[in-house]
Amino acid sequence: MFLEIVTPEAILFSSKVDSVTVPGIDGEFQMLNNHAPIVSILDRGSVKIHVHTQSNLSFDDLHGSIERLPADNKVLTLNIKSGTLEMKDNKVIILAD
To answer: What's residue 68's pLDDT?
Structure first.
């Protein structure tokens, strides 16, 4: 699936991913390839981007606020204050604060 994370200042991330885990207002949830369409409000927390099978992702080009998880360098994290998420047709767009 394709993930794009956008803030008012910039596009922070735009690439194919294996899965993404987000902090929903009722708790954390994960989306995989072919997930049903969803729109959700996000709460303060950490967005976890799983890129295990993505060999072409350049970690040097990542925005400074996205970090690799120390225990698994193929999991990227981004802390957000709030946001909105939409998933449709295997494309996830996160509008984050």
So the answer is: 78
